[in-house]
User: Fold this.
Amino acid sequence: METKKQGSRTFALTCPPSVAGWGSVVGKKEGQGPLGRCFGSVSQDSYFGEKTWERAESVMQEQALAQALEQAGQPAGALDALFGGDLMNQCIATSYAARSTGVPFFGLYGACSTMAESLALAALLLDGGFGEWTGAVASSHFCTAERQYRTPLEYGGQRTPTAQWTATAAGAVVLAKNGPGPYVTHVTVGRVRDRGIKDANNMGAAMAPAAYDTIVKDTGRSSGFYDLIVTGDLGKLGQALVVKLFDQDGVELSNYNDCGLMLYDLEDQDVHCGGSGCGCSAAVLTGLLLEGLRSGQWQNILFCGTGALHSPTALGQGESIPGICHAVALSARR
Amino acid sequence: METKKQGSRTFALTCPPSVAGWGSVVGKKEGQGPLGRCFGSVSQDSYFGEKTWERAESVMQEQALAQALEQAGQPAGALDALFGGDLMNQCIATSYAARSTGVPFFGLYGACSTMAESLALAALLLDGGFGEWTGAVASSHFCTAERQYRTPLEYGGQRTPTAQWTATAAGAVVLAKNGPGPYVTHVTVGRVRDRGIKDANNMGAAMAPAAYDTIVKDTGRSSGFYDLIVTGDLGKLGQALVVKLFDQDGVELSNYNDCGLMLYDLEDQDVHCGGSGCGCSAAVLTGLLLEGLRSGQWQNILFCGTGALHSPTALGQGESIPGICHAVALSARR
Assistant:
């Protein structure tokens, strides 16, 4: 069985797994955005009833996964494996959420590419003949991420024009070996790309080269095949850079958008360059894209998770910010 | 194709991938231990020629992977996917090492279970029909880990009797679809277990329940099948706890050891309860175990990566330390 051309980074799935259920949980600000009505639940409380924001993020993951399992009509115990991650050091939102469900668990770190990375591995495992049900989950929380990566929230630091807003959001997906779709048909594994960006407030520029590298070089289809190519989350600046890179190749990306531009109203919600964080693309996928594939709004989507593998420690030592982009092709039909 | 019984967490690989190459890189102290002569290379310089210990850890991964690729007779470009991780926040040792090789990369976070987690996924991907060559890599460095998880090195804190010594070590493995072995025959996916341990200097106790949960409940073989069951890295206390848990079930684990007890001389090297860190089990696997399978010293080994999903932030908020254990069954013959 040959599932990919030699030297390519794209695996074509032989029997594409079906997305059997999905769930999304967001915070107040995300609920006020253009996609506010699309999400499974919106909390007005940034603590989600917990004592700390870190605990809150775990609860968001648990709730999103519970929604996805309910839609799939399965108990948590049905999952043969759950793939997940988040932005916190040691990925604790995910570890503690996985503790509560007690399912077989693979922890990932892919920064904001985590939803695509987890979805990719969950699909590859099933298509490889391992198990019947797999899950993928990712989250971020503005209040856990900003103080860890940049400045204490109480500091009230002025945000630069290039900054993005870390989404308070979680998304989860449950895959089945068979079902009515939508389907995961292809997976392109990302490579770490680095063009020397050292500004922790300009993640879009750090990730854009990786997005370009994955979309253009390897999917083996023309960009016109997709009704929608969506990166997550490059924001306004990063998205413009990707458009420019394609433009240099003479390719017009008319069907291209970015989750960071879709989650918020950039004019009215003071998010500067747009949304970011693992939860941003996770929530747009599970709140909007999968529903649109099921309803017939779109037939083919290329979901490209983009992650800035940003470390305050490495930046302090003079390192630049590497980026990665994993792409997952989704289709309404097999 | 049914590769596991329903409700089990063990996948039996249909066409077990062959471990085509392995590499190990350790620091001075590890080179002075009982396995000192087994490793691919030993550095007397904790900086490995770099300006920071964080950069040094990336170099260790690059060197270990280069050894593994050389033994496999393949260039880095042959890898269809590399799975890897480390203990540092945002797993930067791995991200920057993956940047330098430029191969398709899946980032993982599994604390000290990372070598088993990456090996498991690299094997599942190949056996699933995806690609020809995959890689797995993990590392830790005493100087990057201790200051991040506990106290600044300069502080010279007194270590408790239950403490383990984070190994300065990296291990890498290259898998092939076919070859002369040793082979990865089974993978058991871990679950997050937590018995309420809150002592950051007692990781062994935090991980022991997960090791017991994975070894006893799910491998579907009697423990006597294996010439060696090896956990990594519970240390003296954690290992004793696992033995006790089995003892309560009336099972004597006569063939059981722990990488944390194998890497150092506990009497003479002042490591208290033994070794720990992703690099400890990675180096014992790639320095000793795979060689022993190839030479005929052992026929069947159950390699159980144990991780304490420990977070200083979560501990400070009153959380306990969850553990996880992924097991990979290795055999000299298919």
User: Anything to note?
Assistant: The radius of gyration of chain A is 18 Å. Chain A has a mean pLDDT of 95. The first strand of chain A starts at residue 10 and ends at 12. Chain A is about 35% helix and 20% strand.
